[in-house]
Amino acid sequence: QLQLVESGGGLVQPGGSLRLSCAASGFTLDSYPIGWFRQAPGKEREGVSCISSRGSNTNYADPVKGRFTISGDNAKKTVYLQMNSLKPEDTAVYYCAARYAYCSAYARNYNYWGKGTLVTVSS
């Protein structure tokens, strides 16, 4: 059974850093692209970043470009999202998700989801 489990969220001050992890089970990372999404209270879920199934391609939403970095460790079956220079507007529940074929910025295109981890950026 394919499962995704996020971890690493927490409370951080503006300008701080966090690293989120997405641990996969039931499949290998070289089979599925993995996307990170976030959902703030009262807002729709939005794409943050994605890494292709073999890690050769990554993409980022404009609000996080230059601050967030996605990476994968196939041996550990884990995808990471390094978040630097965090801002209050980054506050949200962060989810990782898997889908077939290639990366997509749209949540509706993903087949498998974790339960999320909360990131709060506040002083």
Count of beta strands: 11
What kind of sheet is the major sheet?
7 strands, mixed
Low-confidence stretches: none
How much strand content do the residues show? over 45%
- The sequence of SSEs as H and E is EEEEEEEEEEE
Q: Please compute the radius of gyration using only Cα atoms.
A: 13 Å
Helicity level, as a percent range? under 10%
Oligomer: single chain
Derived from helix and strand composition plus strand pairing, the structural class reads: mainly beta
Assign an overall shape. globular
In whole angstroms, the N-to-C terminal distance is 40 Å
Mean pLDDT: 95
- State the helix count: 0
Write the layout of secondary structure elements.
Elements: E1 3-7, E2 10-12, E3 18-25, E4 34-39, E5 46-51, E6 58-60, E7 68-73, E8 78-83, E9 92-98, E10 112-113, E11 117-121
Parallel strand pairs: 2-11
Antiparallel strand pairs: 1-3, 3-8, 4-5, 4-9, 5-6, 7-8, 9-10, 9-11
State the gist of this model.
The protein is mainly β and 123 residues long. The protein contains no helices and eleven strands. Strands 2, 4, 5, 6, 9, 10 and 11 form a seven-stranded mixed β-sheet that branches.
